[in-house]
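so my prof wants the structure for this chain in the tokens format not the other one, which i didnt know existed until like an hour ago. anyway here's the sequence
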Amino acid sequence: MGNKISEKKANSVVELFRLSMTTHSLLKAFRSSQPAFGAWLTVPGLLHARTLAKSSPHLSWIVVDCEHGTVPLVPGAAESVSAIESACVTPIIRIPATGVSGSTSWQIKYALDAGARGIIVPMVRNILFLLFSVVASIYTNHIIGFQCRKG
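here's what i got, hopefully its the right format
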């Protein structure tokens, strides 16, 4: 009996995972080798995020810009992500930390916990910073983007 309950739980977790992948529009575009059109959200608010996400049926992704935009990472990014997800568009968060520091890892964790399907870490200057960011963001099935800068 105990094994059947755990099997049911395991099957429901797998089903939820499959369902989440069917709404991952950016991943669908990558898999089909189609262009992935997106937008940047630089203003806070549930209504702005929802309006942008529903503005075009061709949007695959929206970046919530917490670095140069006015969207605060806490708590603004989470409400924007939920509004974007509700329109079946892939939310990506650009964290405000520049480079890799002690503050970067909690920002990556918060962005992923808020529901972002991808992270942009600004000012990654070398392979060590890149590896630190990847280790800080080990989380299943997320696309991680890095904005690299020469110099």
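also thought this was worth mentioning. The longest helix spans residues 2-22.
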